[in-house]
Design goal:
The complex is a heterodimer of chains A (about 260) and B (about 220). In chain A, about 35% of the residues lie in helices and about 25% in strands. Chain A is built from 10 helices and 10 strands. Chain A has helices spanning about 45-55, 85-90, 105-115, 120-135, 140, 155-165, 185-195, 210-215, 235-240, 245-250; strands at about 5-15, 20-30, 35-40, 65-70, 75, 90-95, 170-175, 200-205, 220-225, 225-235. Chain A has a 6-stranded mixed β-sheet with strand order 6-7-8-3-9-10, with helices on both faces. Chain A has a 4-stranded antiparallel β-sheet with strand order 2-1-4-5, with helices on one face. Chain B is mainly α. Chain B has 6 helices and no strands. Chain B has helices at about 5-40, 45-75, 80-105, 120-145, 145-175, 180-215. The radius of gyration of chain B is 19 Å and the shape is elongated. Classes of the chains: A alpha/beta (about 260), B mainly alpha (about 220). The interface of A and B includes residues 240, 248, 250 and 255 of A.
């Protein structure tokens, strides 16, 4: 893991929902242009963690985030950071595909429009096409760009959401269980896409599927009760983890 | 180690482990019986040993099936994956041990020399050492004792030393007694088979160590 550029680092990250503490001193360094998988039982804090990385927890009134979160060495966990710019840099894909109730074209064009990334219709067409191509969806939708995004299949909708994320040129893509609502073929397409996207983007994926974490990631972190118990190369975690709880969890002995 | 949440999965892994142990016990008795048959020239026992070899092959097949099933249906991880993969590798080594024991008894009818002759006494010594190592090897698998596996792995060199000495004794005897050449040629193969069984035993020790520790034994095996 040495000699690799660190894209995101968190130090002594503590998160509270009201009186309840959800994360305890999480120290992690996530490598650039790699896929990091976060695993752990429900409620262990992995989603809370990735939501810190683009300040999604800001929208929850009772949520308090303490500690340092740096992206490219810049602190993002402080008041004067423009969260809109941050979210332009750190995109997110959710468990359930959530396309806008708009056409396929407008789903992609929305972000570039509001962020002023296109000067004219031609530019915008280009962005829509290249985003859909990168998300491996172009061939399936190019003849029906004006139809509603919600009319696509679940797997296509999820790739549409990924295309939407890519359209504003982020550097980091956060994925919170992106395949849990998809069938195996749609899942395979997303995993193939993740392999391809990691050439350009830093990806952090939360997943409940151990085999998916093993397949798509290079590094894996195991969360338990709000703490990071083990962080290592994915191969090491799934072949011979150091921590007994990690082993119990990945082999289905937790209980 | 705590148990799996899914008890049928736990059950399948336990069944696999016990099938390997069953195969191990059978190979162990095939080998020790082959030495008894050799020393006593017991033809009934020889037939029994040859007949039982089929059972060893069946058990190996059964283990392979169980392993493929586990990988297909359970996708084992970490310790479970090592348990699964090791079972298949150990079964392959045991199958070879079974074959070598069968090969020993097939040679008995060509061995006409008196095995009480001190020139040939090391065959008994070597077989006792190897039997002892094989027993300890299977114990290390049964009890998941990596230190025991490591000690067997390290002790195989003693067998190599004895086999080399035995070769010398045999050659000297052949020089003295030309009529013994045919018998001793077969007896040499028997000795080589015993040594090979010891080698397969140390291979199993390597798998047992890997199964428990998740890493290979460091360094090269000491050789005599």
């Amino acid at each position: 893991m040495k000699n690799q550029k660190i894209k995101i680092s968190t130090k002594n990250l503590n998160v509270f929902y009201g009186a309840k503490q959800a994360l305890f001193d999480v120290n992690l360094e996530l490598e650039e242009k790699k896929v990091t998988a976060l695993i752990g039982p429900s409620g262990c804090g992995k989603s809370t963690y990735i939501r810190c990385l683009n300040r999604m927890n800001d929208v929850i009134d009772i949520c308090k985030v303490e500690g340092s979160i740096k992206i490219d060495g810049q602190e993002i966990n402080k008041k004067d950071v423009d969260v809109n710019l941050l979210r332009e840099k750190v995109g997110m894909v959710f468990q359930k595909p959530n396309p806008f109730p708009k056409s396929i074209y407008d789903n992609i064009a929305y972000g570039p429009r509001i962020h002023g990334l296109a000067d004219n219709k031609n530019d915008l067409d280009q962005i829509v096409e290249s985003s859909l191509k990168k998300a491996a969806l172009w061939d399936e939708v190019k003849d029906r760009l004006n139809q509603p995004g919600t009319g696509l299949s679940g797997g296509q909708q999820q790739r549409l959401c990924i295309a939407r994320t890519i359209s504003i040129n982020p550097e980091v893509i956060l994925m919170d269980e992106p395949c849990s609502a998809l069938d195996p073929i749609a899942t395979a397409k997303i995993e193939e896409l993740i392999d391809d996207l990691k050439k350009t983007y830093t990806i952090v994926i939360v997943t409940h599927s151990m085999s998916q974490a093993a397949r798509v990631s290079q590094n894996t972190g195991f969360f338990h009760l709000g703490k990071i118990l083990e962080f290592n190369l994915t191969e090491k975690i799934f072949k011979n983890p150091d921590n007994k709880l990690t082993q119990d969890y990945i082999t289905g002995r937790f209980g | 180690m705590s148990e799996h949440i899914v008890s049928s999965y736990e059950g399948q892994l336990k069944t696999l482990h016990s099938t390997v142990l069953k195969m191990g016990a059978l190979c162990e008795s095939q080998f020790s019986n082959s030495i008894i048959a050799l020393l006593k020239k017991d033809e009934e026992l020889i037939d029994k040993i040859i007949g039982k070899d089929e059972r060893i092959d069946e058990l190996e097949k059964k283990i392979d099936d169980q392993v493929v099933n586990l990988i297909t249906l359970r996708q084992p991880m970490a310790i479970d994956l090592r348990e699964t993969v090791s079972a298949m590798r150990i079964a392959a080594e045991l199958e070879r041990i079974g074959d070598l024991a069968k090969n020993i008894v097939k040679r008995v009818k060509y061995i006409k020399v008196d095995l009480n002759n001190p020139d040939f006494s090391l065959i008994k010594t070597a077989s006792e050492l190897v039997q002892n190592n094989l027993k300890k090897t299977l114990d290390s698998y049964s009890k998941k004792d990596e230190q025991l596996a490591l000690s067997v792995w390290n002790s195989d060199k003693e067998i190599d030393v004895i086999i080399n000495k035995l070769l010398e004794d045999f050659l000297n005897n052949m020089k003295k007694e030309k009529k013994n050449i045919e018998s001793l040629t077969h007896l040499l193969f028997v000795a080589k088979n015993i040594e090979r069984i010891g080698d397969h035993s140390t291979n199993i020790c390597e798998y047992v160590y890997f199964l428990i520790k998740g890493e290979e034994i460091k360094g090269n095996r000491p050789k005599g």
